[in-house]
Amino acid sequence: MGVVLILATWHALVAGRDIIQYPILGVWVLLFAVIGIISYIYMLFFYQIIGPKFKAEIKDVKNIGDIIEIKFKVIDKKMNFYPGQFIFIKFLNLEKSFEIFPFSISSSNSEELIRISAKKSGDFTSYHLPKVKVGDKIFLYGPYGKFSEKFLFEKKDMIWIAGGIGVTPFLSMLKHDKLSNNKIDFIWACKNEKDVIYDKEIKDILRNKNNIDYRVWISSDSGRISAEDIIQLCDSKETISNKLIFICGPNQMMMELADQFIKLGVKPRDIIFEDFNLI
């Protein structure tokens, strides 16, 4: 990724007509490129030395359709985390083992094994990650993220919206010991029925939780979900501006839904994303 950024910057500065014509634009492009390259080098080398690190061993690997699910146990010391947080993982037995990758935790802090689930959608998750096996050693960096902060500390009704594998932080939140007693509408939007791989697990968790209404939205049947669809499903037209909206899924889906909810009266501060932010 860093090499691509360097080459793209060089091409833009040397061959970009607009940059040649407007030197100030070139300065801005160079500035952002330098920040990006420094960030990449920091994550690739320095962060792995000074960041919070735990060693773990893979205990279970499952391939469920397009999803690979990995469970591991931290060695020597416990890694505490809040529901909805994510970690960076360095897979020591894989090619590209010099890189670290972010994954949301889908287990609870009280479970012995930590679980992550990843969709096989890119080069690493499609070709390298499926090669991991039980017994492999990994390094964990983190945990990070404040996705569940308002879930834990604010007493408001909520709408949870998961898109595809974006369900993972919500699985962790559902298992939290102090799950909110406020009303929660939980909507999981998936492309096809086969993608709803945690449906049974969610229903089992919710068996004794009367404050959570759970629904699955299949986009191949009903089209791309919108804020209006969600309001109708939750019967929240009159109360939507007083709710917290949690969204985790593809970036385009999160941005589109956030924009739609804001237009419908939801305050931007009440819309919470999972965007793998370190702070």
Q: Mind sketching the topology for me?
A:
Blueprint: H1 2-15, H2 17-21, H3 23-50, E1 53-64, E2 67-74, E3 86-91, E4 101-104, E5 114-119, H4 123-128, E6 137-144, H5 149-153, E7 158-163, H6 168-174, E8 184-190, H7 199-205, E9 212-218, H8 219-222, H9 227-234, E10 244-248, H10 251-263, E11 271-273
Parallel strand pairs: 7-8, 7-10, 8-9, 10-11
Antiparallel strand pairs: 1-2, 1-6, 2-5, 3-4, 3-6
Helix pairs in contact: 1-3
Give the count of structural domains: 3
CATH level 4 superfamily of the largest domain: Nucleotide-binding domain of ferredoxin-NADP reductase (FNR) module
SS-based class: alpha/beta
Question: Which strand order does the major sheet show?
Answer: 4-3-6-1-2-5
Integer average pLDDT:
84
Level of helix content?
25-40%
Count the DSSP helices: 10
Unreliable stretches covering 5 or more consecutive residues:
1-5
Distance between the termini: 22 Å
> What is the second-level CATH architecture of the largest domain?
3-Layer(aba) Sandwich
The shape is globular
Strand share of the residues? 25-35%
CATH class of the largest domain: Alpha Beta
CATH domain topology of the largest domain: Rossmann fold
The sequence of SSEs as H and E is HHHEEEEEHEHEHEHEHHEHE
Largest sheet: 6 strands, antiparallel
Number of β-strand runs: 11
Task: Report Rg.
Answer: 21 Å
